[in-house]
Specification:
Largest sheet: none
Shape: extended
CATH class of one domain: Mainly Alpha
Structural class: mainly alpha
Number of strands: 0
CATH topology of one domain: Serine Threonine Protein Phosphatase 5, Tetratricopeptide repeat
Number of helices: 36
Distance between the termini: 94 Å
Helix content: over 70%
Strand content: under 5%
Radius of gyration: 35 Å
Length: 651
């Protein structure tokens, strides 16, 4: 019967709209036939129940034929009439006792977005397959989705019992159930289900249930409630450790039995150090350390992270120190402790922690990596390089690539550019691989030649559309820097021909054409093409409007375009500058000054200052013009546009 159901479920409508159910043939057409079939089903089910047998064991040949035809009709009608198909499959489920029919009924109830019928279907599925995992999980998921908290809590306990019967710990079982709660996308329902589970089954004595609650609350951005749940979980956990110690059981035994819940990823903490490295001016991106490190303490670490993120760094450090006192050899937690010290501004203490771990455990790559980043942050380049070199020799694949990336950065700091290029080219895997290859291309263009740079650029494999765009922009930029403007334009011509209709490429080509080749025709054509596809494209409106005002006498159209842009982005300093400039060109200098001052207040850009200086000078407000230009020159020393304005005005 299951094979029949699944084969029929694969039937797809041939494209013509299915007629309403009243026009379908045979049993689908006749209400009396449906009633007759339902009566036969009920009689069949009663006989089977009395004998303790499956309903399908009493099916007649005619009933089997009816079932086959019914499911074929349902599979055709289901796309347009899901509730009709649902009814057929529910009838078949009652007649045959086959769980597959109830599963199909659930599919069509969900398609119809009918919560009540979904519940009926999934309960029937679970009833017909009491030992099946999928029906139980589907029932739990559906109950959560529709907000039936008490029933969901009952099913959650059944799921946990099944997991535990398979040998999973309570923590593992709860971890397996969390994704279903998260799927609900409703923090109130998800947390209510877990709270009801804790009240009904755990008596608030199970730290794993409280850990799961804290995890859910953290996921749904409820940090204060998450902290409360995790603090309670930690209190219960520590009390259980103390109880074990008093009864003579080894403390480690309790930890081993409870370590399988939520695996901790130390790379999250290491990334914070990488971010600091990038912020320091060395341009360092996030590392690609492996994410399969051993689990740290399952409650202390997430609690410490939440406390630290919510302004309670001292409390976070305190609970980490307490854990380390209990388990001094747990390097996972010690590393996280070191990162928390670092993020709290206690860099000397943080470094001491990592140096101590490395001294006692020389092969701990994560500790060495963290120490290397700290040394780099302290500008101790040689010491950092020594640690990274150790990682390249002793680490695993992703660790090696992460270290090579930073060794390349260090080579740049030392101005050893050829060595930096060589190192970057070796970073062929990991999260930093694309960034490394791009940087190799940039250095080749700057310190070798454009041909080598372009050849290497063609070896880079983009991982996303963003990477594709980055490669196009990089090649064009290299050519612009080499003053090969026609070649740079050809890069965009080729990309636009390949990715037809891409507005970002059109915009970039238009900007390049007007700025470096003085090709007003290309810029205008590209901007108008963008606006035809996207009339509210602010950048195209502003660029075309400003250029018309600056290069032509089409002031009315320029003003209209810029006005549209300004309505869409009223605080954009570039658009305010454009409005000031078009008003100046239209002879409305007093109004122009207001817009230009607003633009300059938002961004002290040299071009905006030059525009304001020129308009003030035209109004014979020469002292104001001089002050604006000189102040801007102090912020942008050597700016040619400002110097040109000062020279033109005899200043």
């Amino acid at each position: 019967m299951g094979a029949i159901l699944y084969l029929s479920g694969s039937v797809v409508s041939a494209g013509a709209a299915v007629s309403p159910p009243s026009s379908l043939p045979m049993m689908a057409q006749s209400e009396s036939m449906q009633e007759s079939m339902q009566e036969s089903m009920q009689e069949n089910a009663s006989v089977a129940e009395a004998k303790g047998e499956s309903p399908s064991s009493h099916l007649t040949d005619q009933m089997v034929a009816d079932i086959i035809y019914s499911v074929l009709v349902a599979s055709v009608a289901g796309e347009d009439y899901p509730l009709y198909a649902w009814q057929i499959y529910m009838d078949v489920a009652r007649l045959s006792g086959d769980p597959a029919a109830a599963e199909f009924a659930l599919k069509y109830a969900r398609q119809a977005k009918d919560a009540e019928k979904s519940i009926q279907s999934v309960y029937r599925w679970a009833e017909l397959s009491p030992e099946g995992d999928e029906p139980t999980k589907a029932l739990f998921r559906t109950l959560v989705m529709v907000g039936r908290v008490d029933e969901a809590a009952v099913q959650l306990e059944k799921i946990l019992q099944r997991f535990e019967a398979e040998g999973l710990t309570r923590g593992q079982a709860l971890k397996e159930s969390l994704p279903i709660l998260i799927e609900a996308k409703n923090p109130d329902i998800a947390t209510r289900v877990l709270r009801r589970h804790i009240e009904k089954y755990d008596g608030r004595k199970d730290h794993w249930a409280l850990l799961a609650l804290g995890t859910i609350l953290g996921h749904f951005q409820r940090p204060m409630e998450a902290i409360s749940a995790l603090e309670e979980a930690r209190t219960i956990y520590i009390a259980s450790l103390d109880d074990e110690s008093e009864t003579g059981a080894p403390e480690g035994e309790m930890e081993d039995s409870s370590s399988a819940a939520l695996e901790e990823d130390r790379a999250i903490h290491i990334a914070s150090l990488d971010d600091e490295a990038g912020a320091s001016g060395s341009g360092m991106e996030d590392s690609a350390l492996p994410k399969d490190s051993p689990p740290a303490d399952q409650i202390t670490v997430p609690l410490a992270r939440l406390l630290h993120a919510n302004g309670r760094s001292d409390d976070a450090l305190s609970i980490l120190e307490e854990f380390i006192e209990r388990s001094p050899d747990n390097n996972d937690v010690r590393i996280i402790y070191g990162h928390t010290l670092f993020e709290s501004g206690r860099r000397d203490q943080s470094r001491a922690v990592f140096e101590d771990i490395v001294a006692k455990s020389p092969s701990d790559i994560n500790a060495r990596y963290a120490l290397a980043i700290l040394l780099l942050q302290s500008n101790q380049i040689d010491e950092a390089a020594e640690q990274f070199k150790f990682i390249t020799e002793e680490g695993q694949t992703n660790e090696v690539y992460a270290a090579l990336f930073y060794l390349a950065r260090i080579a740049e700091i030392r101005r050893e550019f050829i060595e930096a290029i060589s190192l970057y080219r070796r970073v062929r895997q990991g999260d930093n691989s694309f960034t490394a290859q791009v940087r190799a291309v940039e250095l080749l263009a700057e310190h070798r030649n454009v041909v080598l740079a372009r050849n290497h650029l063609r070896t880079i494999r983009p991982r996303s559309w963003q990477d594709v765009m980055g490669i196009i922009q990089l090649e064009s930029r290299i050519l612009v820097d080499a003053e090969l403007y026609e070649d740079a334009l050809a890069v965009y011509d080729k990309a636009i021909n390949r990715f037809k209709g891409n507005l970002e490429l059109l915009y970039q080509r238009g900007i390049l054409a007007i700025e470096y080749l003085d090709r007003f025709d290309i810029m205008e054509s590209d901007m108008r093409a963008i606006l035809e596809a996207d009339p509210n494209n602010v950048d195209a409106l502003n660029t075309l409007g400003y250029t018309l005002a600056d290069r032509t006498d089409q002031y009315e159209e320029a003003h209209e375009l810029i006005s549209r842009a300004l309505r869409l982005a009223p605080d954009n300093h570039y658009i305010l500058d454009s409005m000031g400039w078009v008003l100046y060109r239209m002879g409305q200098s007093e109004r122009a000054v207001d817009y230009l001052r607003r633009a300059l207040t938002r961004n002290p850009d040299a071009e905006i200052a030059a525009h304001l200086g020129e308009v003030l000078w035209s109004l014979n407000r020469k002292d104001e013009a001089r002050n604006v230009l000189e102040a801007a020159l102090q912020m942008n020393p050597g700016d040619e546009e400002l110097l040109d304005s000062l020279r033109r005005f005899g200043m």
